[in-house]
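Service request form, structural biology core

Requester: graduate student, group of Dr. S.
Request type: structure prediction, single chain
Budget code: on file
Notes: please return the result as structure tokens.

Sequence provided:
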Amino acid sequence: MQATEGQRAPFSSADWIYEIKFDGYRCMAGIDAGEVKLMTKSGSDCTNWYPEVLPALAALPGGPHVLDAEAVVMREDGTSDFNRLQERARRRKWYPGAPPITLAVFDILVHEGRKVMDFPLMTRKELLQHLMAGMRPGPLLFVKELPADAALFHAMVLPKEQGGLGLQIEGVMAKRRDSPYLPGVRSDSWVKIKRPGWQEGRRWTG
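Core staff response, request fulfilled:
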């Protein structure tokens, strides 16, 4: 499932949530009896590209599970650094001095062998949060929901000298709280809200 093309201005609504949009590469994770497989958005097997996340995924209880996530390189302030990710992605492997990968997990499609794509988004988020509960910070990150609030968005991205947090994020994803997960579909239940002044960097497409 992907957001519709284009983007919207920040808005406030009790029927929606915001999620910080981490700037990385989309990655689907399948976990079954401790066995892990990672796939890119285009369907390439990328299991061996990010070996540092595999033990944490394998340690998730139960299964089978299928998770939707973004492979990112994190800064100390909790935002993602796409420029540092690019070199790692080009090599398609870990190497000495490589920046560590974090898998920012934001949705779940299969839980304990049961397809949950028809469940409302907030129900899926609750299942995912419970599944990842108790995990130490590190290679896996649960992407929490934020209120869909225009004032909150502006406060996050407004420069510090102007009283904001100055977060160097790409923006947020706005999602309907009751939206199902529609594989392969661009849905108007997911929309992008970009940080003012954000410019998309040169992307590796291999």
